Amino acid sequence: MFYYFVRKLLFLIEPEKSHTLTLKCLNSKYIQILIDMFLKPIPSRPIKCMGLTFPNKVGLAAGMDKNGEYIDFFSKLGFGFIELGTVTPLPQVGNPKPRIFRMLSEEAIVNKMGFNNLGIENLINNIKKSKFKGIIGVNIGKNKNTSIENAINDYLICIEKIYCYTDYIAINISSPNTKNLRNLQFGVLFKNLLKKTKRKQKEMHIKHSKYVPIAIKISPDLSRNEIIYISQQLIKFKIDAVIATNTTLDHSLIHKIKNSQIKGGLSGLPLQRKSNDIVSILYKQLKKNIPIIGVGGINSINSAKEKIKSGAKLIQIYSGLIYHGPKLIRNIIKKL
Ligand SMILES: Cc1cc2nc3c(=O)[nH]c(=O)nc-3n(C[C@H](O)[C@H](O)[C@H](O)COP(=O)(O)O)c2cc1C
């Protein structure tokens, strides 16, 4: 109840402003003390995935804490893991504002952020400062000014820099707001990306005597045949996990509402079915060879269970947290 009251006030403010304002307030020392006093830690329900032990199945999806500024706050909400980023080798401003739009009646968000972030060095400094001892993933991408043909270099730079500071790395080739990025999911570009990424992982593994798993984050706008092809390549190159899915460009899912023409990636409830279907196809193809981290439209205990039934081993949440608040996370963790 309390969250829905606060939400009413927050939703009066422009979405990106209210996002930043809320996180800044919640991150203050005094609020942290209150959280420690009133939010009891949730008992851990460990699960093994990618060779790591996660305290529970529920993670924060990429994009919420792009620069790793709020790691300790999000860990207090009970998340078993936190995926930071997307971060790029160099800082960049992203697309012009406004670039986040809420569709309250649909429980949806459309965003066209374009990888606004302060760069990988800044993220590393923030990870070093955090007290969180749980699982951190870092989601990496390419800079806007890097051509798609040279994109792999940006991923390799990020892997090399972040390797010692993260538990897993997520390769984002599915954001719809960076021109041509999704081309990396197909053909020679995809194979080269997987080959060079695995080579870099092996080199870093030897250098640091530490194995950091690599996950690939895919789009929901793929055909069945494309998913089958992607699955075969993921198995061939021994990729550690797949994250399904990013936001969708399919706005027919919200065609009845007045803002449906706004360009950008759609997330939240309208994405749920589409993203579950992708997880199901992946699961049939990958069997138990490669774990799936399911994300897209989780807004209740039932939808979390549905994602797991579709084949996800772990789940992540973004829009559900905006619409239902921290209680959703705790309820799901307790009931899964
Ligand atoms: C405002 C916003 C920003 C996002 N930024 C990123 C990002 O930087 N990298 C990424 O991989 N996914 C990003 N996402 C996608 C989410 O991580 C997630 O895959 C997607 O929103 C579907 O989950 P949901 O329905 O629970 O929101 C973003 C989503 C939103 C709404």
UniProtKB/TrEMBL annotation:
Entry keyword annotation includes DNA repair? no
A single Gene Ontology CC term: plasma membrane
* Listed cofactors: FMN
The record ties this protein, via Gene3D superfamilies, to: Aldolase class I
Where does this chain mainly localize?
membrane
Q: Any idea which residues are catalytic in this one?
A: S175
Where does the chain bind substrate?
K66, N111, K112, M113, G114, F115, N172, N177, N246, T247
Q: How is the cofactor bound?
A: Binds 1 FMN per subunit.
Which Gene Ontology BP annotations are present?
Answer: 'de novo' pyrimidine nucleobase biosynthetic process; 'de novo' UMP biosynthetic process
Q: Look up keyword NAD and say if it applies.
A: no
Q: Which UniProt keywords apply?
A: Cell membrane, Flavoprotein, FMN, Membrane, Oxidoreductase, Pyrimidine biosynthesis
Q: In which pathway does it act?
A: Pyrimidine metabolism; UMP biosynthesis via de novo pathway; orotate from (S)-dihydroorotate (quinone route): step 1/1
Describe the reaction catalysed, as an equation.
(S)-dihydroorotate + a quinone = orotate + a quinol
The subcellular localization recorded is: Cell membrane; Membrane
Question: What is the role of this chain?
Answer: Catalyzes the conversion of dihydroorotate to orotate with quinone as electron acceptor.
Q: Known HAMAP family for this protein?
A: DHO_dh_type2
Description of how the protein assembles with itself and partners = Monomer.
The family assignment reads: Belongs to the dihydroorotate dehydrogenase family. Type 2 subfamily.
Instruction: List the protein's name.
Output: Dihydroorotate dehydrogenase (quinone)
Q: Which organism is it from?
A: Buchnera aphidicola (Aphis fabae)
